[in-house]
Amino acid sequence: MANVFGATATTDEVLSGVDLHGKRILVTGVSAGIGVETARSLAAHGAHVVGAVRDLTKAEAATAQVRKDATENGGSFELIELDLANLKSVRDCAGQLIAKGQSFDLVVANAGVMATPFEHTADGFERQFGTNHLGHFVLINRIAPLLRAGARLINVSSAGHRFSNVDLEDPNFERTPYEPFIAYGRSKTANILFAVAFDERHRARGIRAAAVHPGIIETELTRYMDPDHVKGLREQINSQLEGEGRGPLVWKTVPQGAATSVWAGVVAPANEIGGRYCENCHVSQIVPDEAVFSPGSGGMRRYALDPANAAALWKKSEEMVGETF
Fold first, then answer.
1. Based on the number of CB atoms within 10 Å of its own CB, is 231 exposed (0-12), middle (13-18) or buried (19 or more)?
2. Which of 100, 82, 167, 89 is nearest to 129 (CA)?
3. What φ, ψ does residue 211 adopt, rounded to 5°?
4. Which of 66, 85, 258, 311 has the fewest beta carbons under 10 Å from its own?
5. Nearest to residue 59, comparing CAs of 98, 96, 33, 84?
6. Domains of the chain by range and CATH?
């Protein structure tokens, strides 16, 4: 690669000199945070971006800059309704996209929730697993025929996958005491495993899939957490890092947080990122299971790249949503 990017790279730096005119891209969750910035940066380089959102009114206001940058640079932007916590909405959204018959060069599965109270989706799934994984699982598999040869799927995961492997025996916490960050970890591991399995199934068509960790960013994702709890966590993390002889946690800006999504989706060689997990604009390395988790440290757990684990999740997901792909 001509350019090597790192943790501080922004979307505009990653996409410098990249022409996306004629490319069609779907991004979920474009009503706040890195979803808006992902859509903006891609549209600003000429792409036609479809933003899928739960709240169209909120998204219209949040994406004013996306439309402005798109118009000024020959790109375009439109919104479509999608509630990932309701499979009827997911199937309706997929149906609308299929009916239009317009292909996509890139899908960025960005939407998600974190550390929610114990709740269920409209279909009875634990909210984080149902929203972050199962909603995207149905949407992306239903629109898979629209992906052009050479297209990519980028699932936005998290270093939080290191909190937990998936639990295919009790995905809805029916027998397991609910812990918000364990549930989040399960859903983020599922995002990676889904990318692994999707890449395996579609690479013969030249379609590649990967998962990314955007970094630690202050966005609406923490809206379910008490501010004092967030402050306490930050202090705990910094204390841990100090004990390891490292500096305090550095939070990314939103343009830095969205950079790995656009790097993996547009810039990185397909064979480099296909079936992998990326962070800080590079492919991440596996860390031992016994390694202490620190949000400021990099690396991924081996279970999140295990093909057998990915295949088992795919089968369980099909059973849960009542569809075979």
1. exposed
2. 167
3. -120, 150
4. 311
5. 33
6. 11-224+253-320 (3.40.50.720)
How many Cβ atoms sit within 10 Å of the Cβ of residue 222?
15
How many Å apart are CA 53 and CA 270, to the nearest integer? 27
Nearest-angstrom CA–CA distance, 275 and 261:
14
Q: CA angle at residue 275 from 272 to 279, to 5 degrees?
A: 65
In tens, the pLDDT along 61-87 reads 999 999 999 999 999 999 999 999 999
Q: How far apart are CA 173 and CA 169, in angstroms?
A: 9
- Which are the catalytic amino acids? 157, 184, 188
Report the alpha-carbon distance of residue 85 to residue 129 in Å, rounded.
9
Q: For 303-320, what is each residue's pLDDT tens digit?
A: 999 999 999 999 999 999
What is the SS3 string spanning the chain? CCCCCCCCCCHHHHCCCCCCCCCEEEEECCCCHHHHHHHHHHHCCCCEEEEEECCHHHHHHHCHHHHHHHHHCCCEEEEEECCCCCHHHHHHHHHHHHHHCCCEEEEEECCCCCCCCCCECCCCCEHHHHHHHHHHHHHHHHCHHHEEEEEEEEEECCHHHHHCCCCCCCCCCCCCCCCHHHHHHHHHHHHHHHHHHHHHHHHHHCCEEEEEECCCECCHHHCCCCHHHHHHHHHHHHHHHHHCCCCCCCCECHHHHCHHHHHHHHHCCHHHHCCCEEECCEECCECCCCCCCCCCCCCECHHHHCHHHHHHHHHHHHHHHCCCC
Please give the distance of CA 226 from its chain centroid, rounded to a whole number: 24
- Separation CA 31–CA 34 (nearest Å): 9
Q: Would you say 156 and 277 are in contact if contact means Cβ atoms under 8 Å apart?
A: no
38 residue type, one letter: T
Name the residue with tokens 């909120």: 58
